[in-house]
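Page 37, continued from 36.
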């Protein structure tokens, strides 16, 4: 795969410098590859931050701004930022006057470990920081073992809604309970059609025959639950939704929010064909789609594939789904 870059050693820094220049009205870039929102939140409100590996853009750089994250600590390609990098952002938010800082953590071993260590460092300095670990991927652990599941594109529901609730003034304990509620009502499943490449090595993240797809891929190209011959959009959507519906379970009469995420190289034509099948099948099951996101949210470079995430919603969730957010991702 051809990529137009400068030096592979400076990929992340070069990207963030360009991003901060392009969106200078919304974000500012600090030493340590940390993006902060330019329009500061009231220090009386809970600051919400995240740390994540780079290479999944527009996640999570497009999630910094008013109504969204106060800070995003950007790690190396597909690698969680270190605890020392995370504590820099915690200190800065504390210096800005925030007494309470919440870290949202995607459920991957490195992310969890480094966030825990950053919180320990913060506590030693008298800073109050807490974390919520988020997961959604039904393919990565069986039902009943949800805490062992990894985080994928469905985390955009707790990300966006939790940040909105914090912007609205929700206090720390209630914010944690709300974030966990959104997480526990979210299920996601991904498929891959073709591999992406690691931008530093140029190597494919996996190999896949032209007539097969992989079901249950992780956001770093981790292997899924198995492969199948290339199906039609209708058959594939039915297969994926049956798994998601059974896992929650989602039932007739439920209201759901839907995220259809492009893993990197899908076309708009494919996405909207798929989304049409999603709504049709959920309607057949008596499940009402009340909100949707369709587009590119979490990528694995130019991997071709997509994920479907369902979140069972209530009035509180819908309020914060619709809450104003300063990002090109949310209309």
């Amino acid at each position: 795969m051809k990529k137009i870059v400068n030096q592979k050693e400076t990929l992340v820094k070069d990207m963030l410098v360009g991003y901060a220049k392009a969106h200078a009205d919304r974000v500012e870039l600090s030493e340590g590859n940390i993006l902060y929102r330019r329009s500061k939140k009231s220090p009386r409100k809970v600051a919400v931050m995240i740390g994540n590996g780079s290479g999944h853009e527009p996640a999570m750089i497009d999630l910094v701004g008013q109504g969204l994250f106060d800070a995003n600590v950007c790690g190396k390609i597909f690698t969680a930022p270190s605890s020392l990098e995370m504590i820099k952002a915690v200190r800065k938010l504390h210096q800005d006057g925030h007494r309470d800082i919440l870290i949202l953590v995607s459920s991957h071993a490195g992310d969890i470990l480094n966030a825990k260590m950053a919180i320990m460092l913060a506590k030693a300095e008298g800073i109050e920081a807490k974390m919520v670990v988020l997961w959604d991927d039904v393919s990565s652990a069986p039902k009943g073992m949800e805490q062992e599941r990894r985080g994928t594109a469905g985390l955009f529901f707790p990300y966006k809604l939790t940040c909105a609730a914090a912007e609205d003034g929700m206090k720390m304990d209630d914010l944690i309970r709300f974030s966990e509620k959104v997480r526990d009502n979210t299920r996601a499943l991904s498929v891959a059609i073709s591999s992406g490449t690691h931008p530093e090595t140029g190597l494919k993240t996996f190999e896949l025959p032209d007539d097969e797809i992989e079901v249950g891929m992780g956001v770093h190209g981790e292997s899924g639950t198995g492969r199948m011959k290339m199906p039609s959009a209708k058959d594939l959507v039915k297969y994926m939704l049956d798994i998601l519906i059974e896992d929650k379970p989602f039932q007739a009469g439920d209201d759901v929010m839907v995220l259809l995420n492009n893993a990197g190289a899908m076309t708009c034509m494919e996405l909207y064909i798929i989304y049409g099948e999603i709504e049709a099948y959920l309607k057949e099951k008596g499940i009402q789609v009340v909100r949707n996101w369709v587009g590119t949210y979490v990528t694995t470079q130019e991997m071709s594939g997509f994920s479907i995430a369902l979140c069972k919603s209530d009035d509180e969730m819908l309020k914060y789904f619709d809450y104003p957010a300063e990002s090109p991702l949310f209309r």
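The first strand starts at residue 27 and ends at 30. Flag for discussion at group meeting. The first helix runs from residue 11 to 22.
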